Every structure is written in C-alpha cells, then in structure tokens.
Amino acid sequence: MSDISGPLDLPLAHLYRPSALKANAPLLVLLHGYGSNMHDLFGFAPYLHENFAIVALQAPIPIGGPSYAWYNIYFDQPQGKWNDETQAKASVHLILEVLKKIVQQIDVDIEQLNLLGFSQGAILSYATAMSHAKLNKVLCISGYLNQEILPNDTVLHSCPYTRFFVSHGDQDQVIPVAWARDSKIKLLELGCKLEYHEFPVGHGVSPENFSALNSFLNN
Known about the structure:
By secondary structure, this protein is of the alpha/beta class. It has 5 helices and 11 strands, in the order ββαβββββαβαββαβα. Strand 4 (61-62) and strand 5 (68-69) form a beta hairpin. The termini are far apart. The relative contact order is 0.14.
C-alpha cells in the first residue's frame, strides 16, 4: 500500500482541489492509469470548472518509484499478458469506500458524483459505475469495459441515472480501439446513456479529446 497522505481522511493517497462553492458542490474523482500516480490527471484541475470539488486518487499498489497500479498486469505469463482481476475487484470496492468517505467529509451534491478515469482507471470507472447505480457522469478515456470485473448482477438499466463519456485514440497500441467500440456496444445493450468519441491519436489525451470531455462535464 502507498503511504496515505492528503487533506482528507481517505484510505488512499490523494490530491484535493476544493470547489468554489461553499456547499452542494459537484464532485469529480480522478483515477489514473497503470504506472502513473495521483499527480497525473490532477494536471487537468486548473482547466476544469471551479465549481467542481476534485479529488485525484492514487492507486494502492506500488510498482516501483512513483508508479502505482489499481491491479497488477503480468506481462511474462505463458498465456500472454494477464490481469489480476481479484485485485481489480478489490480496487472497485476501495473506490466505492472512498466515495462514501468523501461525501461524509465534503459538502457535495450526492446527485452530482462524477468519475473520470484514464486507461486502467477507465476500466475501474466502468466497473465502479456498474456497482454504484447513482453516479452522475462517468468519463472513460482510453479504456474498455472488462466484463470479468463487473458485478454479477449487471443487467439492463444497471446505471439508469449515469451518463457515460467514452473516448479512444484510433491509433492506440496499448488498448486497441476495437475494445472501446465493443464497450460502446455493450453499454448500449445495457441501456446506458452514452457519448462516444474517437480521435486520431495513440494512448493519450489530445487537446480535442480534453475539450470534448470538458464540454461533457459542463453540460
């Protein structure tokens, strides 16, 4: 586990930008990708609306230096790259616990709980949304819907109140864009509200992608 630090009393290290509102603020929780840390997506904070209370979480598994993971990826297995889905499910439960603790400590609008995840953080964002029926907006960037870590009771209209933003680079060599397209189909089959984008980039966030996600957050 990483050392716990940050202004809030949470079981994960984090960075926090308070809302400009004194009460009833919309909340945005940021989940970084594999091998990154809480500072990565927090770089978005100065460019996001001042009304958002923003919490950037750091994943619980240290993998060397300033790098952390929500679950381990084993690249040298005989069967090929393998994800530790038990760890992934544990991280989903941890994120849900953190959301509860944030709501207890910050005066936020419980109908405006939002997640933004990149890559592995996006994969966890999908699963967290399927486990918390009342998330408002969930932004999944350069990830995919891993059905192996979804709750067993994920069915049609599992997320009736949630709007999804899904974006992917059509030149992504880390997570193929075909996986994002499959995720789009699955979300629509589940009756989810969805805004989907592809951009002519690799595994990253282009200025056009950021503009689109910022617009989604503000509408």
